[in-house]
Lipid II flippase MurJ
Amino acid sequence: MRKAASLLFLLKFLKAPLSIITLSLTAKYFGVSLDRDIWLLSFSFIIMIDLAIWGPINETFRAKFITIKESEGEIAALEHTRSLLAYIFLGSLLVVLLMEIFAPMIASWIAPNFTEEESKSLTSMLRWVSPILLFNQFVLLGNSILNAYEIFYAPELAAFISQGANILLLILLAPYIGIYSLLFSTALSSFFQIAFLIFYYRKLRIPIFKRQTIKFEHFWFFFLFAVPFFIPYFFGQLNGIIEKSIASTLGTGVVSTIDYARRVPDIINGVLISVVLTIVVPLLTKNFVRKDEDSFNANFMSSFQLGLFLLMAFVAFMATGSMHLNTLLYTSNSISFDAMKDITDLSVLYAGALIAIFLYLLFGMCMISVGKSKLYAVLGAGAQVFIILLNMLLVERVGMYTFPLSIFVAHFVSAIVMAYNYPYDKKQIAVEFIRYVLFGVVLSIGVYYSYASLVYMYTLNNIIFEIIIIGVIQILLMLVMGYLFQIKEFVDLHHKAKAVLTKFTR
């Protein structure tokens, strides 16, 4: 499982340059501006609504589909899935119609400090963006179906090609239609992924579109399983809306500043979450259904260790290279030096918050697999409410920095409670966590002071060269510290290198 997760992470990580290019182009064309704020407010609101309504079903779909497939057979699982897709489409269509009607009221709610003219622009964008609801869940569930058949890599290839087309469309359209180029490129990207899914289902002869009577009880079957998660998802999306609403009151461009700051951490977060949902959930569910405790524990610990290692490496890089990376990505006349400093500081804090988010998600998936989904749901809702309260109470004192700090605190506390309910060796989890955190702290300090010493001795004036230098320093230190802290990847690398040297010196 560790090998499959590592390969999937690598594939997803290879998409990161495309995400970074998209991000850089967005900064180039739109910078920190009102248009960018309007796009973020409207697009984020639509995605939040989508996730609040269908997110819990999407998150639990893989586990339930595999359970039905294992216990009742493939035909029954597909019959349930067809009904689910039909009702999701009808429900999304209803939401889109309501959005078209109530867009002015929604605009005044999510951006209360906007002028009348600004509210009109936001209303117009909300109406244009809302149809994305009709396609987003089909793409997510469509990929989940392939994952349930243990097809992990093909969806990543489709997403890679789709993202490349997205970049091309942005370059071609942005000079002519401005911020609406983001809308068109996003829509066409979704169409491409849907076309790919249809092609792949036919190629593998998965009869997902076979005619049948759509039964409400089949939809209800998935819905009931996901019910405990609707509360945390609701508060999670409400939290996102409130966060952007609060940020919009701090001044023009603050919403964009926060968005730019969290985009690079979000790329890493998206990769890790996708790997957890794509590989970990199906495997843990299979282990639980088959009552294979040893495999369950081994698969969980592999994911736990790999995730912590990758996050500690990322935080160590951001602690030193955040300013260089953000300067490279967001060079724009509309982004001031002060805004860039805020983006840099916030991005480091958001990178640290990923550790708590990863722990919360991984233990949450574990709770689902061992039949404690209600605990995960309650803690998820509590975490989101806690974040909302912290943001409202601290924003006047801490400003925009309260957002990443509240995310870290709330998710970390929830993860600790779920870790206490882990059914197997809790002591091993605690020991591994402390070991990996120490590895991350020592690595961060080592990279920072090594680079600072180099800069003190030599003058470096090229940003790309400086980022490469930081990366090389980190890799060299990781090779040493990874072995000293007995990180599995580096211990295995050391043994392989030793075996090769022994072979050639005979």
In short: The chain has a mean pLDDT of 80. The longest helix spans residues 34-71. The chain is about 85% helix and 0% strand.
